[in-house]
Design brief:
The protein has helices spanning about 15-30, 45-55, 95-100, 125-140, 190-195, 250-255; strands spanning about 5-10, 35-40, 65-70, 80-85, 85-90, 105-110, 165-170, 170-180, 185-190, 205-210, 210-215, 230-235, 240-245, 260-265. It has about 280 residues and is α+β, with helices and mostly antiparallel strands. It folds into two domains: about 5-155, S-adenosyl-l-methionine hydroxide adenosyltransferase, N-terminal (Rossmann fold), CATH 3.40.50; about 165-265, Elongation Factor Tu (Ef-tu), domain 3, CATH 2.40.30.90. Helix 1 (about 15-30) packs parallel to helix 4 (about 125-140). Keywords: S-adenosyl-L-methionine.
């Protein structure tokens, strides 16, 4: 089977950074197939990158997965984590944690300290090219994971807090998992959670934001409502998304990543709409 390396970064596409990572991999291991997961993660948005990788990993072949996303200026020790049939490389800032869980949990974790594997000289601001790319290429073509550096206790790894989803009586509580470039708000709540409280496509959903609330249709796609109107639908990951047809739902609803929300059926008695 052709070895696979995937790349997820916040480098953007306006310069040659992504191409440089590709080049280092191909020069080291020309037989490797490279899959670009995403390079348009907002700069340093670890949570957004973690969500993208975790939701993509079930659809990726076994391989080595690089997630080079870190806040500018942050201290970022490099780690390799083996989980299931996958090896994840990235800064130890939590960006890998949700994907590792999605892959079945970590079996072993190691620090990337073997400088013989790095591209020289190592730029302090471009570990994607000089550390992760060459190490990924070597691992994908058979280098034992033990060669990258010493094993570290898994409890020492930085992990993002697991997103919440709780069915309580006739409501589902959750949080904003991520917001994309269009202002679509992905929640930690699944369509299955909504089904438990009686909300299904074609019905009405009430979104509670603290003391505020808004009622909106629950449909199959955002295009099911006229331009400018709010709608909820289930995305390809099975999660509930709040959106506006040709608009920015995150801005209108004032919902940043991590914000707490409650959802209930529109058939429940509610006060007059407040948004």
């Amino acid at each position: 089977m052709t070895p696979v390396i995937t790349l997820l970064t916040d480098y953007g596409l306006a310069d040659g950074s992504v191409a440089a990572c590709h080049g280092v991999i191909v020069l080291t291991a020309p037989q490797v197939r490279i899959i670009d997961v995403c390079h348009l993660v907002p700069t340093g948005d670890v949570r957004r990158a973690a969500a993208i990788l975790a939701q993509t990993i079930p659809h990726l072949p076994p391989g080595v997965h690089v997630a080079a996303v870190s806040p500018v200026g942050a201290s970022r020790g490099a780690v390799a984590i083996e989980a299931g049939e996958h090896v994840f490389l990235g800064p130890d800032n939590g960006v890998l944690s949700w994907a590792v869980t999605a892959a079945g949990g970590a079996r072993t974790a190691r620090e990337l300290t073997n400088e013989d594997l790095f591209r020289k000289p190592v730029s302090p601001t471009f570990h994607g090219r000089d550390v992760f790319a060459p190490v990924a290429a070597r691992l994908a073509t058979g280098l034992p994971l033990a060669e990258v550096g010493p094993e570290i206790p898994q409890e020492r790894l930085v992990a993002l807090r697991t997103p919440t989803s709780l069915v309580r009586d006739d409501e589902v509580e959750g949080e904003v998992l991520s917001v994309d470039d269009h202002g679509n708000v992905q929640l930690s709540i699944s369509a299955a959670d909504l089904g438990v409280v009686g909300v299904r496509p074609g019905g009405t959903l009430v979104v509670w934001l603290g003391r505020r609330h808004v009622s909106l249709p629950f449909r199959e796609t955002f295009a099911a409502v006229p331009p400018g109107e709010l709608v909820a639908f289930t995305d390809s990951a099975g999660l509930v998304v709040l959106a506006i047809n040709t608009g920015d739902a995150a801005q209108r609803l004032a919902l940043p990543p991590g914000a707490h929300v409650r959802l209930s059926s529109g058939s429940r008695r509610t006060p007059p709409e407040s948004l």
